[in-house]
Amino acid sequence: PVTNMISRRQIMNRSFDPLHLVNTYGAFGSVSRIRYEVVVEGTDDAVPHEDSDWREYEFKGKPGDPRHWPRQFAPYHLRLDWLMWFAALSPSYAGAWFGALVERLLENDRDTLRLLRRSPFPPDAPPRYVRARLFRYEYTSWRELRETGACWERTYVREYLPPTRLAGVAQRS
Questions:
Q1: Residue 140 to residue 148: CA distance in whole angstroms
Q2: Does the residue 12 lie in any domain?
């Protein structure tokens, strides 16, 4: 019976299915081994370019660093991480809130940073620029996991948001 829990052909519900007590409805019909994620990065370089020291913001639950295992937070729902996943699926979905998130990151806003696992910038030194890039994540093989320690393979797809800074705010010199 326990092996049935991880089987592709689960039969554990068969005994009570005729009673119509439960169903398989869910918000997501299936979860694939591939997903797209928006990775948010900041730099304190005065003029950003591809070779700048871009540092990644770490979210509490969503994939980021390929060496970090997916985390479980049940019964909590990490709404920002969830919204970021939808932003990767459809940039138009993020239109209402993503700009405000970037602005708060550029300000090192304490309440916003509490929604993250880790900011790469100290509280008194916010980034000059923030950018976002879209990546494709896929689980690695067991062999690759053992050899490299990476559970994800991450492939760059495209720019999501070009380097952006606070408008109308005096920048640090």
A1: 10
A2: no
Separation of CA 112 from chain center: 15
Domain assignment present for residue 171? The answer is no
Measured in whole angstroms, how far is the alpha carbon of residue 81 from the centre of its chain? 6
Q: What is the pTM assigned to this prediction?
A: 0.80
Q: What are phi and psi of 29, to 5 degrees?
A: -70, -35
With contact defined as beta carbons under 8 Å apart, do 123 and 108 qualify?
yes
- Full residue range of the structural domain in which residue 100 is found: 32-164
The string of pLDDT tens digits covering residues 16-32 is: 667 777 665 555 556 67
User: How deeply is 28 buried, as exposed, middle or buried, from its count of CB atoms within 10 A (0-12, 13-18, 19+)?
Assistant: exposed
Q: Domain total for the chain? A: 1
Report the pLDDT value the prediction gives residue 19, as an integer from 0 to 100.
77
d(CA 36, CA 152): 12
In a domain, 11, yes or no: no
Tokens read off for 130: 């923030």
User: In this structure, are residues 35 and 120 in contact, taking their beta carbons and an 8 Å threshold?
Assistant: no
Residue whose structure tokens are 């509280």: 123
